[in-house]
Amino acid sequence: MKFIKKFGLVFLVFSMFALFISPVAASNTGKLSSYTINLAQYQTGEDFPGYRMAEYFKKRVNELSDGRITIKHFPGDLLGDWKTQQIAVKEGSLDMTMAPATSSFDPETEFTLLPYIAFTWEGIKKVLGPGGEAEELFNKIFERNNTHYMGVQPGGFINTVSNKKFTPMPGDPSIKKIKTRVMPNKLEEVTGKTLGFLTLSMPWGEIHSALMLGTIDAANGPAFAEAPLFKDVAKYHYNYQYSFAAPAVIINLDLWESLTKEDQEILDRAMTEAENIEWDKAIESQNAAIAEMKEAGVEIIELTVEQMAANVAACRDKVWTWAAENLYSKEFMNTVLGFAEPIPE
């Protein structure tokens, strides 16, 4: 009997201690407790938007909460690759992450890979920026996966680097034999073929050597900030702007709902500030990358209005139709079409 009483006392003390340190307790009791949120993201160093966003968010949350809330930042693959991080947030073993869309988490998150949802800075920010038109869809997708959507990491438009010159028009004879790397993803493969390329699936890490050795003639996938990585092995940079790197920022839903309204507002405010700073920096990164490529002797090729319109129309006709038949419902695709940027005229 003494053992049972002693065990019961220990359990009660432990429970009270857990209640004191838990964000859930803060929500239930109305107290503003101190706690730590673990945030992982896949980029390392100040040159990358994900790292900068995480560091700003960490600093700003500390300021807004008067030091009560600590954001512990794990950059790179310290807690696994981005797929692992997303699943961990979903399961609750990790608090937060900024991670690119992956079908292993939820196939519908990959709608951001659909080509030409938008193709101008004004258009893409209207769709994916803070309070953007895609926010309701993001909320729906992430909430059913036990996560809360907080925004995106604006990584910039996706383009094409090449060693051979061609006319960027679907069906043009000059593009048909351009051996072009695409991401190991069926949607990216269909997009590459629709743009007119002879596609080869290849991981990111193999692009540089493949361009240097002539295994491929071109590569789809580099965002503006990443393009200078290939300035020594590419002669041309085509500003297709067919996609946009937009890793989602998510927090575990159970954790989010355990927080007080005040703390939710602190996290939201800090993340929105961080995101807006990076939207501005993304444009700066584009201009800096173009200047660096030009200085290295790479020719920057802007698509004409006619060429852009032809590529947008082809992708929305063929790729979006394929996606409606093989990945998503027509209803889902109509939702995306509802906030897509109009075809240029």
Summarize this entry quickly.
With 345 residues, the protein is an alpha/beta fold.
Key traits:
single chain, 345 residues, alpha/beta, D-Maltodextrin-Binding Protein, domain 2, 6-stranded mixed sheet, 5-stranded mixed sheet, 12 helices, globular, disordered N terminus
Description:
With 345 residues, this protein is of the alpha/beta class. It folds into two domains: 162 residues, Bacterial extracellular solute-binding protein, family 7 (D-Maltodextrin-Binding Protein, domain 2), CATH 3.40.190.170; 131 residues, Bacterial extracellular solute-binding protein, family 7 (D-Maltodextrin-Binding Protein, domain 2), CATH 3.40.190. The chain is built from twelve helices and eleven strands. The strands form two sheets. A six-stranded mixed sheet has the order 7-6-8-5-9-11. Helix 3 packs antiparallel against helix 10. The longest helix has 35 residues.
